[in-house]
Design brief:
Helix content: 25-40%
Distance between the termini: 27 Å
CATH architecture: 3-Layer(aba) Sandwich
Structural class: alpha/beta
CATH topology: Rossmann fold
Radius of gyration: 19 Å
CATH superfamily: Alpha/Beta hydrolase fold, catalytic domain
Shape: globular
Strand order of the largest sheet: 1-2-3-5-4-6-7-8-9
Strand content: 15-25%
Number of helices: 10
């Protein structure tokens, strides 16, 4: 078995100051509303401000975009032999990091070794410290529209600049923690984009327990991403919560590969315990609903808490390759 590794990171929940902060935001904080500037000039709204293609596999780009008030980056991991394969096209996996992580996270974890010799392109974009793969309702730091950046700009840019299958059958999305939520959200909300979705310790039910995960998204984004702004607004924009909640969009997963991983024994660390306890309960609720709807999936409940499980990532990537167009 491949060894597992617990990242040395604070959880998003702890960074937000815990559920007390979430409850406080629910009381009616007055927040400013964002407005994105006009798009950039390359046809996708992206302008490259830095890049490096010295490594034959891992290519790096940093962009200026009106959707994000700072310059987000992306790592694009190419398959072995990409440059010698002529006109061959490849399926693409969009791999989304967790809270307080960034576009380099999966390179640190071992993505190059996990994909050695495998015919797939892996795209790993910035999603913010607590961006929740969303366009926030309010922000006090300028635009933080990660959802628009990824879906409206980055995906078409990748398809235009790399030899991909620019179609449903050629794309998958996966992620860890906040990124696992983003993967589930993107798959349902953008129905024809991804043929495979994977959530590694990412919430699948954001209204359960009084909407604890939605409160968590608001609290963490206010604390470390938006300087008091929030993902869902105060009070919530109920339509947005519904659109983002996997549990309320079950039919939009039908006909797709679904891969779910959750930990069953988080540590006594409060952040680890609260994170994975909610993930596990939400996955079980989501799976029960998928069962009732007759929608198949693969799932794993493993010992341990809230961390990236290397063996499950490798299993997931192999399953994605087998499922997508070759």
């Amino acid at each position: 078995m491949v060894s597992e590794h617990r990242p040395t990171r604070r959880t998003v929940l702890k960074a937000a100051g815990g559920l007390t902060v979430a409850a406080g935001l629910g009381a009616g904080t007055i927040l400013a509303t964002s407005a994105a500037a006009s798009a950039a000039d390359d046809g996708f709204g992206l302008h490259i401000v830095d890049s490096n293609q010295a490594d034959p596999r891992m290519w790096y780009y940093r962009f200026q975009t009106a959707e994000i008030g700072w310059q987000p980056a992306v790592n694009v991991l190419l398959p072995d032999g990409y440059h010698e394969s002529g006109g061959r096209r490849y399926p693409v996996l969009y791999l989304l990091h967790g809270g307080l992580q960034d576009f380099i996270t999966f390179d640190r974890e071992g993505i190059r070794a996990w994909t050695a010799g495998k015919p797939i392109i892996i795209v790993m974009p910035d999603g913010g410290k607590a961006g929740w793969y969303s366009n926030p309702v309010t922000t006090n730091v300028g635009p933080r529209n990660y959802e628009s950046f990824h879906l409206n700009q980055l995906i078409p840019w990748i398809d235009a600049n790399f030899r991909t299958y620019a179609e449903f059958a050629g794309r998958a999305v996966s992620g860890f923690s906040m990124g696992g939520f983003g993967a589930l959200k993107y798959t349902a909300k953008y129905f024809g984009h991804f043929a495979s979705v994977s959530s590694h310790s990412g919430p699948a039910s954001i209204r359960r327990d009084g909407g604890l995960v939605a409160q968590w998204a608001n609290a963490s984004s206010a604390a470390v991403e938006l300087n008091g702004g929030t993902i869902y607004g105060v009070p919530w924009d109920e339509a947005r919560v519904t659109a983002d909640n996997p549990m309320q969009n079950l039919e939009r997963y039908r006909g797709k590969r679904i891969f779910l991983v959750a930990g069953t024994s988080p540590s006594s660390d409060p952040g680890d315990y609260i994170n994975e306890t909610q993930v596990l309960a939400g996955h079980r609720e989501f799976r029960a609903a998928l069962d009732q709807a007759g929608i198949p999936y693969t799932h794993h409940e493993d010992g341990g808490g809230h961390f990236i499980r290397h063996d499950r990532m490798i299993e997931d990537i192999d399953g994605i390759i087998n499922h997508l167009r070759q």
